[in-house]
Amino acid sequence: MLRLIHQIMLFAGSYAPRIRVSYIFAFLKSLCANGPVIVAIVLVNMLLEGTLEPSGCVVAGVVLLLLIVLQSVFQNIVDRLQSAAGYLMFADARMKLATHLRHLPMGYFTAGNLGKISSVLSADMVFVEEQSMDVLSQVISDVFAQIIIVAFMFWLHPIIGFAALATVFAAVVVAQFMNREALGESVNRQQAIEQLTGAVLEYAEGIAVNKSFNRAGVGARELREAFAESRDHNLSFERFISPWQRALLVIYAIGMSAVVALCVWLYGQGAMEPGNFIGVMFFAFSLFAPLKHMYSLDGTAAIMKVSLDRVQSVLDEEEIEDNGKKVLPASSEDVPEIEFRNVSFSYEDEEVLHDVSFTVHVGETVALVGQSGSGKTTLTNLLARFWDVSSGQVLVRGVDVRELSSEVLMGVLSMVFQRVYLFEDTVRANLSMGAPEASDKRIVQAAEKAQCLNFIMKLPYGFDTVIGEGASTLSGGEAQRLSIARCILKDAPIVILDEATANLDADNESAIQQAMSELCRDKTTIVIAHHLSTIMSADKIVVLDSGRVAEMGSHEELIARDGMYAKMVAAELTAGVWSSCKEEA
Ligand SMILES: Nc1ncnc2c1ncn2[C@@H]1O[C@H](COP(=O)(O)OP(=O)(O)OP(=O)(O)O)[C@@H](O)[C@H]1O
């Protein structure tokens, strides 16, 4: 328990001193809570000795009243200090987590961690937020209350004090074992919740595929299994903790009986004042109540410790360094706008790019072509610093991208992905993401250039229509054009384009091609090209083969070379399907 308090205090950071001040008031509150019994014992002793005056009763009454009032005042101060610190610290923690997630490499999000991130942000954070201050306040009050009661027992009689202390010691030892074991159980429980969250996400994301393959039942079965596993772990956790709690109750009962027996014996021997005897009897049944209460929180505490560990484990993930301070110079004809210099890159252990070098000059369009898996997307991801190179350099206007802040780098890049993601917000908000200050006029112009004005105007509220999460309420072609309009509005000088491979109807196809040409007008462009027309019109074609540059040059140069590219083009012209040609080339 004390370790948990220490962990919460570490988590509290700059709010820890405020919480520590609350300890003082928690102690004072516990003193006040036990004060009435001391007053009662003094009164009884005076009564038995025949020294109790009416004025003494009045003083005792006033003291009792004062103690009750002070107790609630101190409790109020504790609550205020702790809950204010709690709200502030969790608001900070959420911001810290959000900022941290923004600086993690993309690999963290693709390595099966989505279930973990979601359950940390939803289940763990919420649990800690709702419970921690409450548990902290109760544990601190219980610890102080138990210390005061044991001290009081010593004051009444040392032997009684030792008996109470021995019981507390035995309970703490047993609770240590319980805590250690409970921790293991709650790790399993939280992992089951993580798997369940992952299963729910996967089920929701894959529902269309499952339905189309008539597998909806299979998906639901997997989900049900995850639910069942989570339920089993919850039950097993409760079953596990219960016997330990019973063992603790037995210890308290033995301790309490020993104290009562000793008290009777001492009184019989004349070694104890009658008032003190009554005092012990008065306390006997609630002698270990604070400890009992504190350890009844053990299940909650174990889950909280694991939750805090899991939040911390996300916070401990290494960020991509984002402390670049270099200023990006203006574009120049003399320095390449983009340069890949001897770039190699590995996901985990496997190197997928080997010593790749090429340049893109300002205003040029470079087409990346190659078989599926040859490394085209990875190259563009390195330019955007979604990952960092393993060796070599990616430079923008002669500056290594690692020396630029993400704000500066993203300021000069626009990216159109194949998989379009639009947020559940208005069309206007989605378009102005990269240019929040854009006027309505510019927004309309961008939409027009990207061939989306017509369909936007047909939406119920035009630019103020809220589109579904992930663009679920738009057609694929419409969503793609909106994502291009978003980049046109951003107006960044470098464009990275992953050309759509999806089979679109002729109208959509030509609308998207027009939108893309508008986007790339006067820009430096790297395009992952899938259409021969796009490739042929590029200033330079970089042909990738298993992560290496196989050939490089203009369409005419590469055709004249009669190498890999020429074969790909020949296959395209005869079979008419570029993607399958790539596989054969
Ligand atoms: N997140 C990842 N983790 C591990 N390996 C990856 C990851 N992303 C891609 N790879 C691997 O890296 C290699 C290059 O992939 P990349 O996506 O860059 O190829 P590509 O040429 O863009 O393919 P496609 O045309 O199919 O999109 C492939 O072998 C792929 O399996």
Automatic annotation (TrEMBL):
One GO molecular-function entry: ATP binding
Domain ABC transmembrane type-1, first and last residues per copy: 24-294
InterPro entries: AAA+_ATPase, ABC1_TM_dom, ABC1_TM_sf, ABC_transporter-like_ATP-bd, ABC_transporter-like_CS, P-loop_NTPase, Type_1_exporter
High-level lineage: Bacteria, Bacillati, Actinomycetota, Coriobacteriia, Eggerthellales
Topology of this chain in the membrane: Multi-pass membrane protein
Transmembrane region(s): 21-46, 58-78, 160-179, 247-268, 274-291
The protein, known as: ATP-binding cassette domain-containing protein
Subcellular location: Cell membrane
Major subcellular site: membrane
Record keywords, A-Z: ATP-binding, Membrane, Nucleotide-binding, Transmembrane, Transmembrane helix
Domain (ABC transporter) ranges: 338-571
